[in-house]
Amino acid sequence: MEVVDIDARAAKLGIDWSQVNFDSIQLPPGEDFGIESDDEAVYQDDQSEFDTGFGNIIVVDHLPVVPKEKFEKLEGVVKKIYNQLGVIKENGLWMPVDPDTKMTLGYCFIEFNTPQKGAQTRLFLMVEYFLRVSLNVWGSLQEAQNAKEKSHGYKLDKSHIFAVNMFDDFDRLMNVKEEWEPPQARPYVPGENLQKWLTDEKARDQLVIRSGPDTEVFWNDTRQKAPEPVHKRPYWTESYVQWSPLGTYLVTLHKQGAAVWGGADTFTRLMRYQHSMVKLVDFSPGEKYLVTYHSQEPSNPRDASKVEIKVFDVRTGRMMRDFKGSADEFSIGGPGGVAGASWPVFRWAGGKDDKYFAKLSKNTISVYETETFSLIDKKSMKVDNVVDICWSPTDSILSLFVPEQGGGNQPAKVALVQIPSKVELRQKNLFSVSDCKMYWQSSGEYLAVKVDRYTKTKKSTYSGFELFRIKERDIPIEVLELDNKNDKIIAFAWEPKGHRFAVIHGDQPRPDVSFYSMKTAQNTGRVSKLATLKAKQANALFWSPTGKYIILAGLKGFNGQLEFFNVDELETMATAEHFMATDIEWDPTGRYVATAVTSVHEMENGFTIWSFNGIMLYRILKDHFFQLAWRPRPPSFLTAEKEEEIAKTLKKYSKKYEAEDQDVSLLLSEQDREKRKALKEEWEKWVMQWKSLHEEEKLVRQNLRDGEVSDVEEDEYEAKEVEFEDLIDVTEEIVQES
Amino acid sequence: MTIECVNPEGLRFNQMKSSSHQTLETRMRPILMKGHERPLTFLRYNRNGDLLFSCAKDHTPTVWFADNGERLGTYRGHSGAVWCCDISRDSSRLITGSADQTAKLWDVKSGKELFTFKFGAPARSVDFSVDDHLAVITTDHFVGTSSAIHVKRIAEDPEDQVGDSVLVLQSPDGKKKINRAVWGPLNQTIVSGGEDAAIRIWDAETGKLLKQSDEEVGHKEAITSLCKAADDSHFLTGSHDKTAKLWDMRTLTLIKTYTTVVPVNAVAMSPLLNHVVLGGGQDASAVTTTDHRAGKFEAKFYDTILQEEIGGVKGHFGPINALAFSPDGKSFSSGGEDGYVRLHHFDSNYFNIKI
Lengths: 738, 355
What we know:
heterodimer; A: alpha+beta; 5-stranded antiparallel β-sheet; B: 4-stranded antiparallel β-sheet; RNA binding (chain A); RNA-binding (chain A); TIF_beta_prop-like (chain A); translation initiation factor activity (chain A)
């Protein structure tokens, strides 16, 4: 079809091409109108075969075999089923009959409305598509496909389960060999070492940053006081990047889908996951699966937005399951709320097995298991009004919170449920509750529930904690109230792998910070307060991943105040400021901390690297700084005993590293000296050149100035380097021999 | 005044821990000169260094004693913001460029207006040639006219002064302002820089474009200021791209780049030590934070050769728009959006700074 024809047709239908955004038109998946795509990666080979023109015909098998009398009844039933799925062409249903027995043969052909053929250009294809969409009739090709998908496996009755195929697939099915041929085993090709970064000789950590169009991965080289580039790419991702939980992969987001990168030396693309317009991604904790999310704004603002979630196997790239539906099905917010669901929609159970994941929706918790990617026991758990769920980070225990109902007649409830048995391990009823927040300790030993309760007048709230000891018999619960129970709680954080937690409470701008331990010296079963620091400029808590150290940070409104605190000794190691800091992230080893000013505002974007005890190591400024993320490390293989042993004999090990440190610093100062020397020499050369030129031009200048000889600039002032030595103090010390 | 000295790594906030760090605190009181009611735009010393001329958005250029900051007089006559000025070698003539679409010649001593060059557009920058017989004046684009560089002959006797241009150079992009144009060595060239981020060297005789800064190494955003060395051998440009760059004036070779954290509005080079000073800050309209530190309204000192930051002089409550070194390099002054001129005489500690 010529472009002229297209224009003519468009004009006839009153379509203004300038109003049509071709990019916004999305062809349905698998639909190509018989036109081969040049993107081989997207379309498989079998789609390049000739179009037989039977694309709108399906074959329904496993129909009951009926005699002539019942023929019409059966025909009626089949028609009824398939009319729901598409428009059957007139006389489009043909059920062959055995000429001898006059019985049906147990199958039929159904032809849906004929699609328009002869499309040759992509433009025409778009015209077609646009027309169909605007007229709200979608071609029978899709109807057939749809009917096939929807009715395949349809149970007419116990013994008749439909087997539906496309007519076009017939040849393919006929050619299936009678005998099964075992697939050929391909020789094993070792892949790249995905863990190579862990074997860095200097035991450095990597971090990824995004600024402007660039995404860069660095080594954090604190000895050189500078980052060492690993890989840099402009437009590596179209929105953000994310490390997998064990650090093996870096995922990037694109229009077509997500991709993961990694490998031994530079970042190579390991796998792609097709999901157009993907917005968010999430890994399972053992990084076996990748969940991708896409939501589309509804054309009618009253409708809920459409959500599509896919779960991929990270290594094979295979899609394991996809979930489609309206946003309401994936969130508990009422209609008219935020567009899309709260992320992550699917929450993965703790541990590295990646066995279960759960979804919270209205009055239901759906727990899926990854063996079959279906619901456990094939049904969801009904929990009326549940608003929040939270997995234990290590076990398959789900904690859930149900708020008060019936105006306080039915108390609020926090419960622990064991998966997959769905047995309730423990539950607690709570009264006059306005809100609850659940915080698991990273090794799953404790669960803290922050409970906001109404005061008697119901005009204000106050907070307390319910502390669950998961690993103890019967899961005892302890109630903790702050010293001043009217204090507002600003932040809460468990010590990673530890038994302590920190709370910021009180009133802004100078709240207090308290530390508690789940043990006391005498009694391991009682919570005790360790210390309260009064009037701190802090609104966020950042524990070191190894525990013991914590940063009390005053982000944003507090201008980036940082206090590095040692909780073992209960002493401040350092106070510092990263002006306007918006983000803080510890490196996975707990040796260094990055503080960053991201482009929430435009000033002083960039990041600073600190040692764990608050010494500033270096600072990098980057305009339009969006993101910083340390590459996570998988858990150490060393046993706790071994780690303790190393900690005890640290002196033995540290000698070697101290020597290395010194070598590097010597080398650095040497390099620095040389660099300075070179710079000075280069500058001198310029100055010499300038002087001689100035001298050459002297006469001309004199003439210009009507003979005035006062080229005095050089004579009047002379640059001199003067060295001063100031004696500040002399002390005499008499050392007595004993 | 506080000059904070930092070690080569550029560590600034870590005074207590690092041993290599030194803090030089010199308590030198700057002289605050409040004579303008509007933001400062330009500062210039005369050749002897005894007078300081200031221009501001109020319409009155002012002359001060550079020693004690006493106000000597004003030059009344403009009816718009005054963007720029220059003083003749013998300190007898002053030329000013103003938004009232004129450039004026003044008698420095009497304050008398000698001549008015009329343009159809605001005059942005002015510069006397080596012999003071010529002046280069840039004008902005305005209704019907595009931005241009004009060369005027300056007569010995003001009676003979005429308004005709000897040469008019059109900027390639007439919609972009030419923020500064100065004479090259021996009046042979004119060096210009402006909003299109390019530096151009023109033949002052023929008006031919001789050189243009390389896009790769050059500024990325508007050039706001340009300051040349006393011997016309090199010059320093400041830009909104948060850098200042040092160029060879004859070959337009980029020699150094100084990077800071805020847009640069003003630059100056010490005639005495290898120091350059950058001033700037967030655009006044973009200053939204309540904390005065947020704007970074500091005059920052850099080592010319090593390109490393030496220290900063705080004080202005608003961006710095103008900077100038006295010809002996022993004092410098800064002019801010806040309407103040701050005059600093360095004390001995400044001359001892080692990095």
